[in-house]
Predict the 3D structure of the following.
Amino acid sequence: MNFLIFEMKTVCYNSYLYFGDSLGNALTQLGHTVEYFKVDENQLDDLEQYVGMHYDAMFDFNSDLPRALMDDDTYFLDHVDAPFFDIILDHPLYHHDSLKHKISNFHVVCLDDNHKKYIQKYYPHIKSVTATPMTGELAFGKDQIDWDNFENRNYDILFSGTYTAPARLEKAINNMPAPVAETVYELIEMLKTDSTLTIEKAVDMLSETDIYDYINLDKPLHTQTFYLADAYVRCLNRKKLVKALDKCEHPLHLFGALWDELPLKHATIHKELPFNLTFTVFTKAKISVNIMPNFKAGSHDRVFSSQLNGAVTLTDPTILLEKEYQNNKNILFFDLKNIDEATFIVDESLKDLDKLKKIAQEGYEIASKNHTWTEITKKLLSAI
């Protein structure tokens, strides 16, 4: 089979480029042919070379290509003989402006079963939706984890990711039209009160009242309009978690941008790294901490990337993770309802390094079996 992979964005620590290359490498290893269009190497005008071409599938990540038009206002993607798969790495509400376009052979891959249901409900023109988490890789190749020296790993507690101060988002919310800002703040309170609530469920609950009946006129559009509610709670929970980790008896290491904006007492702040280099950092961690971006039925790639590199993952649970993992056996879970408990979980876990290493080893076994690029690629081939 012959595939075309677009790499159109270089944001987010170059994670999109990593995902595109990793998918291409896995397809190649499975015996397929892969061609790339890389925005940092090709000119946008060069997209015209694909008009009239045939591929078994095209892939892009968080794509803007569904919006791309030809001179006659027809969709560019409709001029390539191939199904188009948009692999979206966030909640679909952030991608409404692409998902709404009625491309003739439009497919989506998302990270969460709830996201899959959302797309199926609101974008019926999309022909298929596949849910699968993304992943990373073992930094130094197969079977290179030095389990005998687990206790000598440099970082007792590691968190990798960007900090965004909730106050920044409050400023953005306050600049919205007053009725919209009021709705956003109400959604925020709902999400803070019930940590199991998804943003789409919260919007559904509001839309059931006469006051908010206008939401029903175009539910996916309004859900997109309220994106700052989702973003705010994500940032608030991340701030709470890192504050809790900063209280641990063991040292915390932060990798990512803007952490110097958060007053911390003990944490060591490291500069941000390109996405693929974070895997080498995970090889130095005993516990790698994750908090979901409000995913309730999927997972962030950080969970599996940490495990594949021999670290124990501490994370809030999701439906997907609770099906595959068992707390204190192959993963560590904290409760979003009580983020402060992460302090206790980490300190207690680091008191027994033999047990912690066993958790790391069993987590590695699950991740290396179920959450590799080969496994993800097989799911995508099944969808095709």
User: Anything to note?
Assistant: The chain has 14 helices and twelve strands.
